[in-house]
Amino acid sequence: MSGEEFVPLSLTPLLIGTFAAIACALPGNFLVLRKQALIGDAISHVVLPGIVVAFLLTGAISTWPMMLGAAGAAVVAVVMIEAIRRLGQIEPGAAMGVVFTTMFAGGVLLLEQTDTSTVHLDVEHALYGNLESLIWLDATGWSSLLDVQALAGLPPELPRIALTLTGVILFTWLFWRPLKISTFDEGFARTIGIRTGALGLALVITAAIAAVAAFDAVGSIIVIAMFICPPSAARMMTNRLETQIVWSVIFATVSAVSGYVLAGYGPLWLGAADAVSAAGMIATISGLILALTAALGPCRARTGAPSHA
Amino acid sequence: MLWEALTLQLGYNATLVAIGATLLGVSAGVTGTFLFLRKRALVSDAISHATLPGVCLAFMVLVAFGGDGRNLIGLLAGSAMSAWIGLLCMNWLTRHTRLAEDAAIGAVLSVFFGFGIVLLTVIQTMGVGRQAGLEGFLLGSTAGMLWADALVIAIGGAATLVLVMIIRRPMTMVAFDPEFAAARGLPVHRIDLAMMGLVMAVTVVGLKIVGLILIVALLIIPPVTARFWTDRSDRVVLIAGLAGGLAGYLGAALSALAPNLPTGPIIVLVSFGFFALSLLLAPVRGVLAAVLRHLRFQRRVHIRQGLLALAQGQKIYEPLTIRLLRRAGAVRADGVATEAGKSRAAKALRDEKRWEIVRADQAHEATAALYNGLRDIETVLTQDQIAEIDRRIGGPQEVTP
User: Is residue A300 in a domain?
Assistant: First the structure.
């Protein structure tokens, strides 16, 4: 495919998908190790009521209020989960289940009550995202990358997700040692003076920010998949955290790129006329990678566990 | 209008939906209880999301063979098949790899759901106008419910209930103590699978009414609600069934009131309403009960400390203590002890001394363990024992300079 077609139509969705995948996979590594993997799932459900409330308050689909609404909803959800867990002495999984289903139901109800027929806001959009539509119409070819005027026409999701990714990388890099220590041995981390509670909260907030930014661009299903699948697959490949992070980034990139390409061109190769959902395909590919590593990865077994339980 | 909705007089469709939702609520509450007690509540999330590819594949197969793509039984069979595969994948990941259960749940959930979405877009491009019903499985759609659909839901729900009743004992045992169950020779793994299978059945049955995203709520919220009211597992099952059924019934009735009140979300919100009420008002585990318990404890501590201070002639500064003592008639408004107050204070000081003896005496070890600074000594020792202790303390003695 020539640059004239590739740059306007496929380059930006590819970049956005890849950035979103990596931004979710990085905190996902720690969440999977801390057995908090389902936080991504909970966040991506509660984002819906946040966005709807933001829409109701501002009356328009604009990005910042919606991001704020989504972040606000995530905070409300975290507070509610903690409150229910402590006040009711309920195990965290069930408390999470109570909160995110209720908030999602509230979001759906609000959405049905609101007249959103004039704007593009519906549950399906929230779930699958719309990666294919993030095209860069001002580009004419590779040369547009140097053209300031054309660059101004980039879909706004791209700089946003790039900024988020930078933030996530910075967070991981700055807090690398405390994060690593407190993930593997929380008691030891406390004795050497790391504030594990604050750090855990910071990790969840980082994950929430990544989830909300990625959600805005690619929909919730990729968010959940990327939080869990690439880090889990990477975990099958190695016992070292550094290597695991590298693998997870590789897996996230491979899923995003090959998922997008397969969704866009796969059906054409098979003779069908239309593309399929890129978000769904990216999630599927990440699942296939996980399946492959779970079957063949060098470090797939639990050390010390009986070979067949 | 509300009354008519509650007495099922809003028409044929509303009645069907209400009956279906009630049955669904009962069976989801009962089944979900075992999942909740096993601390695996979120497994239902993976199972429900894993139904989507099955629904789509079943639709494609039905259309390919020239049938009606919206045949409910066919779609439900497809969803059950893919949910079962998802369940096996999840089990395999947890048992044979190093992944923890939460990661396995999340992986199955997202990958199956993503694949389902791919299939949905494929169906959209198939160009048949008959896919309209499929999106309804995401959030439930009760508008076009048929008699046959209601029948499928009723039979499925009833069958699930009967199965739960048959294997409830082994499931309870596995939920509370899997090691003990294994030692008793129960096939723990198979019972777990059966439990998941029942959850899957409820999920599949509920797809039509509340949709695959919200069925999780019906499996989790009623058991959590029920857990507030009792500590006995059989009663938790019963109350969860009741709460689920009531939520289903009320939710369906309320949603029939206005055109854009979707059934599934309303049922979930009603269910959450029951949960919130229980969280606040439940007799022992509720927040209100805990606050009252705390206040009562606080009052006892203040009165006790106040009495001891009176007995030793110390001045009391704490306003709450003074207020409580005054209300109990132990001190007057100016802070001077009344006759009743003096005798209570003397008794408190004497009790404290008696406890001191008890706690120093090896023979009273078991009794000493009950000391918490508040317990009346008469409630743990007999009159004879107290008399014996008093003899050891002795009466008042002159102090020679």
Answer: no
**Bridge partners for B331 per DSSP:** B337
CATH code of residue A200:
1.10.3470.10
- A200-241 pLDDT, tens digit per residue, is 888 988 888 888 888 777 888 888 899 999 999 999 999 899
Query: What is the nearest CA distance from A46 to chain B, expressed in angstroms?
Result: 12
Residue of B nearest to A114 (CA): B260
- How many domains does chain A fold into? 1
Instruction: Find the residue in B nearest to A30 (Cα).
Output: B103
> For A167-190, what is each residue's pLDDT tens digit?
999 999 999 999 999 999 989 999
* Closest in A235, A279, A283 to B111, CB measured: A283
pLDDT digits (tens, 9 = 90+) for A74-129: 889 988 998 998 888 888 889 999 999 999 999 888 888 876 555 556 666 666 66
- Whether residue A152 lies inside any domain: the answer is no
Domains of chain B by range and CATH? Answer: 2-259 (1.10.3470.10), 289-393 (no CATH)
Mean model confidence pLDDT for chain B? 87
Question: For residue B264, what is the nearest residue in chain A, using CA coordinates?
Answer: A105
pLDDT given at position A274 = 72
Burial code of B332-361, b = ≥16 C-beta within 10 A, e = fewer? eeeeebbeebbebbeebbbbeebbeebeee
Q: Chain A closest CA to B107's CA: distance in Å? A: 6
Q: Is the ipTM of this complex over 0.85?
A: yes
DSSP H or E run through A20: helix A12-33
Tokens of B12: 């044929």
**Cα separation of B248 and A239, whole Å?**
48
Question: Residue B14's closest CA among B316, B275, B261, B342?
Answer: B261
The helix/strand/coil state of B337 is strand
List the single best residue of B52, B94, B115, B118 to mutate versus A (max A Cβ within 10 A). B118
In a domain, A176, yes or no: yes
Q: What backbone phi and psi angles, to 5 degrees, belong to B331?
A: -130, 160
